[in-house]
Amino acid sequence: ASLVFLLFSNEIEANHIHPFQVGVGEIDSAVATLKQQQEACKEEAEMYREACQALVSLLSSQPSLPEDHNSLLLETLCALITDSQTPTNLEHSKLRLRLLYKLRKPGEALAAAKVMSTIWPDNVYPLEWLCKIHIERASGTLQVGEVDDVEGVYKRLQELAPTSPLGPLAEGAHLLAQHIDRRADAIAALKRGGDLSGGSPNVHGLLLLARALQVLNYSLFIPSSFKKLFAHILALQASQEWSELEERAREGSKVLSLIHI
Asked: How far is CA 154 from CA 29, 130, 151, 161, 174, in A?
């Protein structure tokens, strides 16, 4: 059976929009219909939000979207998102943040994560994104401004979610940028984050760890606990993930050439 979406019909009667169903093969026409609905009910706030919500539901359910539909999804999300703490607003904010990152708008993603962290100060999600952005910036794979009070961010994340690897990794990234005397602490934090990552190590954290070990001349005397992490770094060279990373990173790939095992 084909996947079915609940959308809105063109017919508006007595301030109520009648639903109808559209199959996956009719996405383009459904998007056009909903855009017409948005225009038709701009003066009716509740109906306009319903039309926007239907459009978000439709577009976000697709496995992939062309550029114009991604832009429309982002624009529609921005129209829906408020500063309220409702579950729906939280989900919309999460989706917008993921979309901004996917569309390679790191500055906007950083700003969105900051806003989310003020609306939901005890929510792990925006804190993890702030740490993620900081880690990728520190590894040289993301061109974006600094995260404000990054120390406060990663400490708060470690308090709320002690099993999240992003807190220790962000701590290690932060310490690595400090005076040389903090590099041992940085290595310990990056190792801790790597351990918490389990079977899916964070590639950016691994790059930072490799860099820290190289600077301290550990390359010839790598502790046994680090050997598995180094093996994973080398394996990433042939993986699709590494290929994508190299496309975005001018400096990150240089780290590998400095490592001698």
From this structure: 45, 8, 5, 10, 9
Question: Is the pLDDT reported for residue 10 higher than 50?
Answer: no
Backbone dihedral region for residue 81 (phi beyond 0: left; psi -120 to 50: alpha; all else: beta):
beta
Neighbouring CB atoms inside 10 A of 86's CB total 9
* Mean pLDDT score, 48-53: 88
Can you read off the two tokens belonging to residue 75?
A: 């624009």
**Most confident by average pLDDT, 73-77, 232-236, 238-242:** 73-77
Q: Residue 172 has what pLDDT?
A: 95
Spatial separation of the C-alpha atoms in residues 123 and 37, rounded to whole Å:
34
Which of 96-110, 126-140, 154-168, 216-230 bottoms out in mean pLDDT, i.e. has the lowest? Answer: 216-230
